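Hey team,

Filing this mostly as a record. A colleague (T.K.) asked me to run one chain through the structure pipeline before their review meeting, and I want the input and output archived in the tracker in case anyone asks later how it was produced. No errors, nothing strange. Just documentation.

Input sequence:
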Amino acid sequence: MLSWLVEPLQYSFMRQALLASILVGLTCSILGVYVVLRRMAFLGDAIAHTTLPGLVVAYLNHWNLLIGAIISAIITAMGIGWLSRNNRLREDTAIGVVLSGMFALGIVMVSRTQSYRDFCHMLFGNVLAVTQSDLIGITVVCVIVLGILGIVNKEMALTTIDPHHAQTIGLSAERMRYLLLILLALAIVAGIQSVGVVMTTSLLVTPAATASLITRQLKAMFAWSAFFSILSNVLGLYASYYFAVSSGGAIVLACTTLFGFTYIVSGFRRIYRS
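Output structure:
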């Protein structure tokens, strides 16, 4: 049993992949609690997809991909926030407009390149290909996001749970919303390297949704969400190593399996209590 656990860790690429996926999973799972409570799951998916133009521009100009993705994601987040300000547009409508426009721009830019093959890892990710410099970039982004969230956690929690009360005591719910959008954009960018644009949403939504089946207390939700995310990343990476399957896909399937198991167990508990 011990050799089964230790064997993959003999390889530096597996150690780097494990560390990167845990960092990304921890960051996304903590933010994911706010995403689930604020019913912003579609927003996470939109930002993940609209990083494509920034990735393409960075790739073609030989820039760091994280920088291109961050710029594109922040433009998306701020654009959605601006369009939906003062309820001029419903947030889901603003998301749909920005998502379709930015993703279409990315597709057009990809079509102008010589090959689509170079952009496959951007969409589907490859955590096993994370380099030392990638790991440093991911670590910096994760530390920034979690650090800022730790500083404004009380304000963010209050504007999430009771925005009207927050407004009456002088807290700007709109300002906290913009900050959450920016932090969300940064976390999604960090996740792209490990599980790609298509599957980053799962790390944001599924662990937090799983935690919400267990508890409604905010602190407990953070803890359970982080636990399920880290466990999913570890199980997914080990499955990809021993069964030679896609690492990103295995991580997301592990997330989904844990959600399904928790959903069934919580359902039985509810029936038993009634």
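Quick notes for T.K.: The mean pLDDT is 84. The chain has one domain: 2-273.
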